[in-house]
Design brief:
Elements: H1 7-12, E1 18-20, H2 29-37, E2 41-45, H3 52-65, E3 70-75, H4 83-93, E4 97-101, H5 106-113, E5 118-123, H6 126-135, E6 139-143, H7 156-166, E7 171-174, H8 180-189, E8 193-196, H9 210-218, E9 224-227, E10 235-238, H10 241-246, H11 252-259, H12 264-284, H13 307-319
Parallel strand pairs: 1-2, 1-8, 2-3, 3-4, 4-5, 5-6, 6-7, 7-8
Antiparallel strand pairs: 9-10
Helix pairs in contact: 2-3, 3-4, 8-13, 11-12
Organism: Fulvivirga kasyanovii
Transmembrane segments: 12-33
InterPro entries: Aldolase_TIM, NMO
């Protein structure tokens, strides 16, 4: 299919308006390389690399394989003590775009604007969208209620028109897209592209366990539940027998600690650390303690396939829909 012309495809010089979403523990260089070859772009969380040396090696691998365009996701709140180092490396390597999450993007925007690096900011509501627009963000990542991981409270059908009506910068929808029809519908709402994650977990290139990939195939939208036991912030996971066993709500001690003004910060840090360790163990090994992040878009995943085939399937489905002007 010929290029789908939107603000996102023009901004990043890609054929199709799709960002392979940054997924903690899942996203890697191989996935991004295959995505770029297939005509989309990809983004990797900087936190997926334990050291700056590993991070630089991944950036070099992508640059040498496809050049670009590709992006990096940065957590911009105080919990990310490696932010300055990660940002410096991104600027040095001149990545094409950065997606910021969980905090103010001011420092990132100021550093990237000098190098022509685009900055897209995760938002879940109008108030924060206006703030990042004022700071100079290049686009909004509208995280809706269909997203995997830390989902927003509003469906795309409400969030996208709201942001389009009140902000002047492009809106990229995050969550709930796995088919060509869904891509078409989101673009029709006014989004210039989508950030799509969960379907790519079931890809040959994803570095997670075969059990995790198969779970994306075997489970559906009805099996996605919200838990606050991973990071202290509500997060979507597959409702495996282990999740049913431990429950999705914090226990009485965690709840008390999180309500204490003095201890709340430390309790949340501990919850986050324990949750991330549980996710990491489940992602890379076979274990009955299965904590697998995913969104309801896994409803449309029916096989483990190469990234190239996932993209081709999406675009082929899209091409059967009526054309529209952007």
């Amino acid at each position: 299919m010929e290029r789908i012309d939107t603000e996102l495809t023009r901004m990043l010089n890609i054929r199709y308006p799709v960002i392979m979403a940054p997924m903690f523990l899942v996203s890697n260089a191989a996935m991004v390389i295959e995505g770029v070859k297939a005509g989309i772009t990809g983004c990797i969380p900087a936190l997926n690399y334990r050291t700056d040396k590993e991070f630089r090696a991944a950036l070099t691998e992508i640059k040498e394989a496809v050049g670009g365009p590709f992006g990096i996701n940065l957590i911009v709140n105080k919990s990310n003590y490696r932010l300055k180092e990660q940002l410096k490396t991104c600027v040095e390597y001149e990545v094409d775009f950065i997606i910021t999450s969980l905090g103010s993007p001011r420092e990132v925007i100021e550093a990237c604007s000098k190098k022509g690096i685009k900055v897209f900011c995760d938002v879940t509501e109008e108030k924060y969208a206006k703030k990042v627009e004022e700071l100079g963000a290049d686009a909004l990542i509208a995280v809706n209620s269909g997203a995997g991981g830390h989902a927003g409270p509003m469906p795309a059908s409400e969030l996208i028109p709201l942001l389009k009506a009140n902000c002047k910068i492009p809106v990229i929808s995050a969550g709930g897209v796995a088919t060509g029809s869904e891509l078409h519908d989101v673009l029709a709402l006014g989004a210039c592209g989508v950030s799509m994650g969960s379907p790519f977990i079931a890809s040959d290139e994803a570095g997670v366990s075969q059990e995790y990939k198969q779970a994306i195939v075997d489970y559906g939208a009805k099996d996605i539940v919200m838990t606050d036991r991973l990071s202290g912030t509500p997060c979507t996971v597959i409702n495996t027998p282990y999740v049913q066993e431990i429950g999705t709500k914090q226990n009485w001690l965690e709840s008390i600690l999180n309500k204490n003004k003095t201890l709340k910060k430390y309790a949340k840090m501990l919850t986050f650390y324990k949750g991330m360790k549980s996710l990491e163990k489940a992602a890379f090994s076979a274990t009955y303690k299965t904590l697998w992040c995913a969104g309801p878009s896994i409803e449309h995943v029916h096989a483990i396939r190469p990234v190239k085939e996932i993209v081709e399937g999406l675009i082929n489905e899209y091409s059967t829909r009526p054309e529209r002007a952007f």
